[in-house]
UniProtKB/TrEMBL annotation:
SUPFAM superfamilies: Cupredoxins. Keywords: Copper, Metal-binding, Oxidoreductase. InterPro entries: Cu-oxidase-like_N (IPR011707), Cu-oxidase_fam (IPR045087), Cupredoxin (IPR008972). Residues 67-165 form the Plastocyanin-like domain. Gene3D superfamilies: Cupredoxins - blue copper proteins. This is Plastocyanin-like domain-containing protein. One of its GO terms (molecular function) is copper ion binding.
């Protein structure tokens, strides 16, 4: 339940957090990451930023060619059938490794490091160890350390792997079936963090970390906690956390949500605005038989994201069944693309309160209608450049919508529905 005072707090905190920046909308309809078949990664320590001004030690899979760490590790984007090699070096003072859940027949080429384990380890200062697998199945996956996992996952050794299907020339389908067509896609790699453990590691006391007392206080989407989730991709204010998560779409678009559980806890990820249709779990289409498509798909109100697992879901929104015309049309006006015709020309079934009796927040345009604006009090609005309709998307475990106990923050971002005439950058 979001109360009026919480919304006021939210407004204040967003203004404090990014009030000095010109708010620019920079969301991509594609997923940021690195492509290819050979990836050179280094396990590396660095510090990340939290929206409350904190700095936390983390360990990451960073691109070897760069000088900093990255939280989470780079999103690896490959094509079905690729033979993928990850060359892992280790700049940390503990052994590390990388495992690829959902990929078969992983072979490793060691270079004098810890052999004989389920997964080859890279010793401190060692490597590279080459991990090679064939990306046989399209879908959404994670990769993470297979060494002392409870600690190394907590510290940040995790990333997402996307395998694009042969169908659709690399983009536009999640799997090899028309049911999985999408117009835009977004990654939601969900992680949780107990900064106390990171402090203990930083003070050289990692061997006495007691995971039975783990108490997460930060929650991230793609490595950022709100409101940083809404800052631009590659924001210079967040050099170690390059990925954002600010979905935008038009009515009628099919948006693919790739939701990956990258932490230690379960997160109920709630997308306001509509249910979505879950088409795949763990990189496997929900299909009753080969060729049947996503015929076992189901609609969900909230996506239960389980640690180590992934969900692919298609989200659509047209305003259907709201019972009023989202454009504020008169009955004689033409229909907009994908408009829910049964509500065309229907008036808003409520009396709008007087503006001076409302708290709007920065995302309200002053009008309930898509593409329209209305009067706002000085200081209100300003974050909704095209007069879209905005929905909060967040963990429905609302304790996870904070930064160290202060609402709002954590695992939260906004979906912006844009008027059909608004161009959304590819
Ligand atoms: Cu209409």
């Amino acid at each position: 339940m979001i109360t009026k005072s919480k919304i006021l707090d939210f407004q204040k905190s967003v203004v404090i957090a990014i009030g000095f920046m010109l708010f620019t909308i920079d969301s991509h309809a594609a997923i940021d990451g690195i492509t290819g078949t050979v990836f050179n990664l280094s396990a590396r320590a660095d510090h990340l930023s939290t929206p409350d001004g904190g700095s936390v030690l983390f360990w990451s899979y960073a691109e070897t060619s760069k000088t900093t760490g990255q939280y989470p590790g780079p999103t690896l984007i490959v094509n079905e059938g690729d033979v993928v090699t990850v060359n892992l070096s280790n700049e940390l003072d503990v052994p590390v490794s990388v495992v690829f859940p959902g990929q078969g027949l992983i072979t490793t080429v060691p270079s004098g490091d810890n052999p004989g384990l389920l997964t080859e380890e890279v010793l401190p200062g060692g490597g590279p160890v080459a991990y090679t697998f064939t990306a046989a199945n399209p879908g959404t996956y994670t990769y993470h350390s297979g060494t002392r996992m409870e600690l190394e996952l907590e510290m940040g050794l995790v990333g997402a792997l996307i395998v694009r299907p042969l169908m659709g020339a690399g983009i536009g389908f999640a799997y090899n079936h028309a049911d999985t067509q999408f117009d835009s896609e977004f990654l939601f790699l969900l992680t949780d963090m107990d900064p106390g453990i990171h402090l203990q590691v930083e003070s050289g006391d990692m061997d006495s970390v007691d995971f039975s007392g783990r108490f997460p206080n930060y929650w991230f989407i793609n490595g950022r906690a709100a409101p940083d989730t809404m800052k631009p991709v590659n924001s210079e204010l967040l050099p170690k956390q390059p990925y954002n998560c600010l979905p935008r779409m038009h009515p009628g678009d099919r948006m693919l949500l790739r939701i990956a559980g990258g932490g230690a806890d379960l997160h109920p990820f709630h997308h306001h605005g509509n249910h979505s249709r879950v088409i795949a779990r763990n990189g496997r289409m929900l299909s009753s038989s080969p060729g049947a498509g996503a015929d076992m798909s189901n609609r969900e109100f909230t996506i239960q994201s389980v640690p180590g697992q992934t969900v692919d879901s298609i989200f659509e929104w047209t305003g259907e069944e709201l019972g009023w015309d989202i454009y504020g049309h008169q009955p004689e006006d033409p229909l907009e693309p994908f408009e829910y015709a049964a509500d065309h020309g229907k008036v808003l079934p409520t009396v709008e309160p007087d503006a001076k009796d409302l708290v709007f927040g920065p995302f309200f345009s002053g009008s309930p209608y898509l593409g329209s604006s209305g009067p706002l009090k000085p200081g209100d609005g300003g974050f909704n450049l095209n007069n879209g309709i905005v929905f909060m998307w967040h963990s429905h475990n609302e304790r996870e919508m904070v930064n160290r106990g202060i609402f709002p923050g954590g695992m939260m971002t906004m979906l912006i529905i844009e008027h059909p005439s608004v161009v959304i950058n590819p």
